[in-house]
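Reopening this ticket.

The earlier resolution said the output was attached, but the attachment link was broken on my side. Pasting everything inline this time so it's all in one place.
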Amino acid sequence: MDPKWNEDVPIYRQLRDRVVAMILEGVLGDGDALPSVRNVAAEYRLNPLTVLKGYQELVDEGLVEKKRGRGMFVNDGARLQLLKDERRRFIEKEWPQVVATIERLGLDTAELLEQVTQKSDAGDKND
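Inline output:
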């Protein structure tokens, strides 16, 4: 996790978002243990209650489960649920802004798609 914090967003929320990113990127998989509250607090010099609050949001969202005396673990299907939620959020919130920008700039969508395809093909050749 990146130790730099954005002053505009509560740290517990940033911590929650970082764990979500780790799940989406496959760093944390189904059944994996989250780093302990104590370790995260010590490593990033945070109040343990701040870490716990971030983790509790994940529990409340059903992404993580708390196992008494053992820690917190990623629930089965958490990544799939996050992907579904993130895709929906993108389509509902971000995509309309992207479309508005494309229209405002008078960009040709066919050209944009062609550029994306070319970059994707170039990336595949470099792998």
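Reporter confirms the inline version is readable. The chain has two domains: 11-76, 89-126. The first helix runs from residue 11 to 24.
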